[in-house]
Amino acid sequence: MMSKGVSRTVVSYNSMILGHCRQGNLDMASRVFSEMLEMGLKPNVITYSVLMDGYFKRGDTEYAFDVFDRMVDENIVPSDFTYNTIINGLCKVGRTSDAQDMLKKFVENGFIPICLTYNSIIDGYLREGSINSALTVYREMCESGVSPNVVTYTTLINGFCKSNNIGLAMKMRNEMKNKGLKLDVTAYCALIDGFCKQRDMETASQLFSELVEVGLSPNSVVYNSMISGYRNLRNMEAALNLQKRMVNEGIPCDLKTYTTLIDGLLKEGKLLLASDLYSEMLAKGIMPDIITFTVLINEGNLQEAFRLHNEMLDKGLVPDDTTYDILVNGKVNGGNPLSGVSRV
Question: Where are the PPR repeats (predicted)?
Answer without folding.
Answer: 9-43, 44-78, 79-113, 114-148, 149-183, 184-218, 219-253, 254-288
